[in-house]
Design goal:
This protein is an alpha/beta fold and about 220 residues long. The chain has helices at about 15-25, 35-45, 45-60, 65-80, 95-105, 120-130, 170-185, 185-195, 205-220; strands at about 5-10, 30-35, 85-90, 110-120, 130-135, 140-145, 160-165, 195-200. The strands form two sheets. Strands 2-3-1-4-8 form a five-stranded parallel β-sheet, with helices on both faces. A three-stranded antiparallel β-sheet has the order 6-5-7. The chain starts with a strand and ends in a 5-residue tail after the last helix. The model has no long low-confidence stretch (mean pLDDT about 95). Bound molecules: adenosine monophosphate.
């Protein structure tokens, strides 16, 4: 069976990463999060990390050439491993990347199954992003209001240290939201016109969002 591809589309802070991590566990889905890959590269001070850091710090998009090459390589690796589901989080982020994704998939005889759009009001996003904390070790995501860790500053899953992403600070959050509105949001119309857009209410609590997305993934396309 061919690998089924699902895109999680929505503004930063909509909960895409949280759902994706749940799907990895509950469906054994494979997962590509371009933001996570870049943060890892920055932390490891690789050549790629050095190239992308200044863009990330400013909250703007990294050049398409760096993103596209990375995604191309990762999808190819996963196709070879015969992964049943692939979740894309944070890619594509503009029309050019969407076109490149189609090309990458066509080359591998793959297609997008569904695009899941995380609908959420911007007031809620700002509240979520400013309270988000991430585990340095395993990448688990917490929220100081709605998903508090049991012990302050410590990951429930692995005991790692929790930190606030540099780009989750107020000034950068506003920039990232503007970039989303200007460059990423038009993908909603693009995928709607292709008949593969499915909208979920991302303002609900984590368990409700998780089950909405899982249902969409397990349901056949035309039902
Ligand atoms: P995220 O973790 O998805 O919020 O991404 C964090 C940052 O990584 C973004 O603000 C961008 O600077 C960069 N980034 C992640 N994915 C992409 C992408 N597909 N295209 C360009 N830049 C990206």
């Amino acid at each position: 069976m061919n690998m089924k591809i699902y895109i999680l589309l929505g503004p930063p802070g909509a909960g895409k990463g949280t759902v994706a991590k749940y799907l990895v566990k509950s469906l054994k889905a494979s997962y590509i999060a371009t933001g996570d890959l870049f943060r890892e590269a920055v932390a490891n001070k690789t050549l790629l990390g050095k190239k992308v850091k200044e863009y990330m710090d400013k909250g703007v998009l990294v050049p398409d050439s760096l993103v596209n090459a990375l995604v191309d390589e990762k999808i190819y690796e996963l196709k070879l491993k015969n992964a049943p589901f692939l979740i894309l989080d944070g890619f594509p982020r503009n029309i050019e990347q969407a076109i490149t994704l189609e090309e990458i998939l066509a080359k591998l005889d793959l297609a997008i199954e569904k695009v899941i759009y995380f609908d959420i009001p911007s007031k809620k996003i700002i509240e979520r992003l400013s309270n988000r904390r991430v585990c340095k070790k395993c990448g688990a995501i917490f929220n100081l209001v709605s998903m508090k860790p049991k012990i302050d500053g410590v990951c429930d899953n692995c005991g790692g240290e929790l930190f606030q992403r540099d780009d989750d600070k107020e000034e950068v959050i506003m920039k990232r939201l503007k970039v989303y509105e200007a460059q990423t949001k038009e993908l909603v119309e693009l995928y709607k016109s292709k008949g593969i857009l499915y909208t979920i209410d991302a303002s609900k609590k984590v368990s409700a969002v998780n089950s909405q997305v899982k249902k969409l993934i397990l349901k056949n396309k035309n039902h």
